[in-house]
Amino acid sequence: MDKKLLDILVCPVSKASLHYHRETDELFCSASGLAYPIRDGIPVMLETEARKLTEAEREALKKQVRP
Hints:
Belongs to the UPF0434 family. The chain has 2 helices and 5 strands. By secondary structure, the protein is of the alpha+beta class. Strands 1, 2, 3, 4 and 5 form a 5-stranded antiparallel beta sheet that branches.
């Protein structure tokens, strides 16, 4: 995922920053609890295409992005 693109993208629901999860090739937002797919290298930033994260996924991903 291009760092410059990731820096300007925000969650369309919460307007919070997004984080890239390499294993699932998704951008996730811990504020809204949504994961947005990346298809053919292009982030699909539509709420209707987003996947709701489970509570366990949210906690695990929060730990990964902490500084």
